[in-house]
Amino acid sequence: MRIDIISIFPEYFAPLDVSLIGKARERGILDVHLHQLRDWAHDVHRTVDDTPYGGGPGMVMKPEPWGEAIDAVLAADQDARPRIIVPTPSGVPFTQRLAMEYVAEPWLLFTPARYEGIDSRVMAEYGSRLCVDEVSIGDYVLAGGEAAVLVMVEAVGRLLPGVLGNARSAVDDSFAPGEMENLLEGPVYTKPPEWRGHEVPEILLSGHHGKIARWRRDEALRRTARNRAELLAALDPATLDKHDRRL
Ligand SMILES: Nc1ccccc1-c1cnco1
Questions:
Q1: Is 127 in the pocket of ligand 1 (CB under 6 A)?
Q2: Is the CB–ligand 1 distance for residue 159 below 6 Å?
Q3: Could you list the active site residues?
Q4: Average pLDDT, stretch 107-134?
Q5: Which atom of ligand 1 is nearest to the CA of 138?
Q6: Rounded to two decimals, what is the model's pTM?
Q7: Does the ipTM surpass 0.85?
Q8: What string of DSSP letters covers the chain?
């Protein structure tokens, strides 16, 4: 997978050099290209923003630098087209399902904006011939889209074949489609069996895999009911047998 990111703060993406994503890049599973938007702002101050037409607070990112920057990225491979992802609080929710859709794409282009956003004509220009998604990572206000790109690149990158040591951990993730979809993960434990008077639940030491699976599902349901009750409403009733309803 190739990922391109255009930003006025390319140094923001230093975390993509380390840990899981960094190793995936070293192993050639992921190819990340960072671009400084100001390289396509040709005035002496390398200006990338201006006041909004129609008035209002803040500044809007100018279309010209973005257009030239995106054209330059597209020119990197004339035979392919990237899926463009625009982080914005006004976008569709970023979910595990969307991450799984993106990991199937050979090329992603992220366009994190600062200020009040990018002049809307930019995505109108590319939306006519490319797939352009406006995506939000949650209902809160960030100073720019760079943090959202880090979140999405990690969520997508970890799903690439060969990136996770134990492939099952992606399948068992919270929110991963399947039986545990829409369920939060329950509590986890490791050695020692007793720590400061706190003991590991006996069931987990029993070696009875069926009972352990049931216990984990019960705990997942309890935590979901406590922290994300709205997800329970989305659970398929068929997956909630009478035992679960007792919880
Ligand atoms: N708040 C923001 C400001 C600028 C660019 C993206 C965002 C964003 C993305 N997901 C939630 O917020």
A1: no
A2: no
A3: 89, 116, 158, 173
A4: 97
A5: 11
A6: 0.92
A7: yes
A8: -EEEEEES-GGGGGGGGSHHHHHHHHTTS-EEEEEEGGGG--STT---EEPPTT--SS-EE-HHHHHHHHHHHHTT-TT--PEEEEEEEEEEEP-HHHHHHHTT-SEEEE---BTT-B-THHHHHHHTTS-EEEEESSSS--SBSHHHHHHHHHHHHTTSTTTSSSTHHHHTSTT-SSTTTT--------S-SEETTEEPPGGGGS--HHHHHHHHHHHHHHHHHHH-HHHHHTS-GGGS-HHHHH-
